[in-house]
Each structure stands twice: as C-alpha cells, then as structure tokens.
Amino acid sequence: MFATSANAVDVGVDEFPTILVFGDSLSAGYGIDVDQSWTTLLQTRLAEQGYEYRVVNASIGGETTEGGATRIESALAAFAPALIILELGGNDGLRGFPPERIKGNLEKIVARGKASGAAVILLGIRIPPSYGQRYIEMFDNIFREVAVENDVPWIEFFMEGIALDDTLMQEDGIHPNATAQPILLENAWPIIEQALDN
Q1: What is the rounded CA–CA span in Å between residue 75 and residue 81?
Q2: What is the count of structural domains for the chain?
C-alpha cells in the first residue's frame, strides 16, 4: 500500500524524519514511471538542498477524502511523519460529493495528523467547469476554509499551469504526464520548504 521514494533506500536514510505524501493518483504517479513522479523528484531536491528527510508516498489512485480519513491512523502508526503533504479531494469533487462531507474528512485527517505531532500542509485542487459554477465555488472554498480554520499552510491549485495545457496532460485529460511532474514539484515546493524551515 505504501511506497518509499527511490532515493529513500540510501544507507541511514531510515533514521531521517519522514515526509508523508498522502494523496490520490495525482501524487501516486498514475500512468508514468514512479521514478518520474513529483514525489521522487521531491526526495532528490531535499537531498540536493541538504534536508535530511525521507519521502514516503502513501498516495493511492482513486482515493477519496473518506478513504484517507479511514486510513490516516494506520499511516501515522506506520511512519510517524514529521510532515504530512495532504493532496486529496479531487476524486470527491469529480463524483459530486457534498462539500461539507469533503471538508469534514479533510479536517479529520488534519486533526489526526496534528495530534500525532506532525505538521500538515494542504495542496488544493480544482474541478472542471462542467460541474457548474455553484458547485465549483463551494468546492474551491473547501480548501481555503480547511486551511484557514485549522491553521494549515496551503496552495490554491496544485495543478496550476498544467491542467489547461494539453502538452502536460495524459490522454485522459485528468492526470499530468511525466513532463508536468517538475512543475507539480515547483507548485508545492514553497510551502514544503516553509514547513521544513519552521
């Protein structure tokens, strides 16, 4: 179920504190080689910049916030992360789940993470315009409200600069391709770096 990024097999790295990526297919490396995924690129960048952390990717394709809320305790017990990068909600939105349910699930994950002593950061996501303006606005507000009300650093749109560029998307129009992975890392890096430096 859980995967440790490639560079985390170096000698002694198990002694490093853990960064847990807790997401869905956008972070699981769907449709690409795992070595090309933004989570693996994150492990490389951390090493290059002198941050001694191991990245554990506990992302699962198709995961919803409800699934995440169900399995967060086992992930915390298994990895005792110092930092959780929370990237869930997209599948809920694509299925039209009620915004209040999505928000509640994200808040459960954040609360359990914080109670374990981990810092938590949130990667916001957006859904296509075909879902209607009212639902889109309510969905967008979920991430802002969770971040503000729970004092969690966040970015508004993890797929910024990617989602509307066909050259950066796989044929399904939903998942970023290998070329997009460095951009995903750049989008997330500022709040990751801020969390590590605090």
Answers
A1: 9
A2: 1
